[in-house]
């Protein structure tokens, strides 16, 4: 099995990795379990409230989860679910999101065990770049008012399934199915960031007003690798609306050094 770093910043990621190491565990089956549970929690508010009710004891919630799901999911999935429901949740939607994330990480682990994380990360880069430059299509794939999640997923499959791996396609379908306007690119970037982190790499997105030269790209990568101490993967796009300068996002750090931003700030200062 390929060694992969656990993403410590993601709740229950360590529990998931431990469960996936159980003999004869199929990571993609576990991923589908978590996706199904996330959808169920989203659709069944009563069940979600019961499993996140702070008035219930941890053991009561775990027993309820076992009765509800034990015969429908793998043992590895159930092990993690029992840990998840025993935690304290402010809102039922929070546990729904946690289950979704665990499904995403299970897909990435499945790819990693086959030595394909590099491929998946690169494919996520390419799909995100394509959608960033095709607004109409991006809107169609993330507009919840124009078709259900399955229909939007089918559209994504018709466009990309012959170009990307099954792992990346599964991630894309989930991103399309659960993304509202403006979130699709964010979710794809987040998945790529997790894939990079699992390989001790840093995923950086850069938008510039005009194309960067190879020398500029190399210099920026060197600066970032010196700053963060890890190998850096960069997804670079051109956005003429920036007018000049660039916008950069590295992990939780966002830098807006665009001329458009400076002009906007100047206008605000004048107006005030």
- What is the number of domains? 3
Coarse shape: globular
The helix fraction, in percent, is 55-70%
Number of helices: 13
How far apart, in Å, are the first and last alpha carbons? 60 Å
Rg, Cα atoms, Å: 21 Å
Number of strands: 4
> Which regions contain 5 or more consecutive residues with pLDDT less than 50?
none
- Round the mean pLDDT to the nearest integer and report it: 91
Q: What's the story with the biggest beta sheet?
A: 4 strands, mixed
Percentage of β-strand residues:
5-15%
The helix/strand series, from N terminus to C terminus, equals HHHHHHHHHHHEHEEEH
Spatial order of strands in the largest sheet:
2-1-3-4
Structural class call reads alpha+beta
């Amino acid at each position: 099995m390929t060694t992969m770093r656990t993403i410590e910043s993601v709740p229950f990621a360590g529990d998931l990795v431990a469960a996936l190491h159980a003999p004869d565990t199929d990571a993609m089956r576990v991923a589908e379990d978590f996706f199904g549970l996330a959808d169920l929690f989203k659709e069944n508010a009563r069940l979600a409230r019961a499993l996140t009710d702070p008035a219930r004891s941890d053991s009561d919630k775990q027993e309820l989860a076992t009765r509800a799901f034990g015969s429908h999911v793998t043992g590895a999935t159930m092990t993690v679910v029992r840990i998840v429901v025993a935690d304290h949740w402010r809102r039922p939607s929070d546990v729904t999101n946690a289950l979704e994330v665990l499904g995403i990480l299970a897909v990435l682990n499945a790819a990693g065990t086959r030595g394909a994380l590099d491929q998946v990360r690169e494919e996520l880069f390419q799909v995100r770049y394509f959608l960033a430059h095709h607004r109409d299509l991006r809107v169609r794939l993330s507009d919840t008012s124009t078709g259900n999640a399955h229909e939007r997923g089918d559209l994504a499959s018709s466009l990309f399934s012959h170009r990307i791996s099954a792992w990346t396609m599964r991630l894309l379908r989930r991103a399309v199915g659960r993304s509202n306007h403006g979130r699709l690119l964010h979710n794809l970037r987040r998945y790529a960031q997790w894939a990079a982190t699992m390989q001790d790499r840093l995923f950086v997105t850069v938008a510039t007003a005009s194309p960067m030269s190879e020398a500029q790209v190399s210099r920026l990568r060197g600066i970032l690798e010196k700053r963060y101490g890890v190998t850096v993967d960069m997804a670079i796009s051109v956005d003429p609306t920036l007018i000049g300068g660039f916008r950069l996002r590295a992990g939780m750090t966002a830098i807006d050094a665009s001329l458009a931003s400076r002009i906007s700030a100047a206008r605000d200062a004048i107006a005030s």
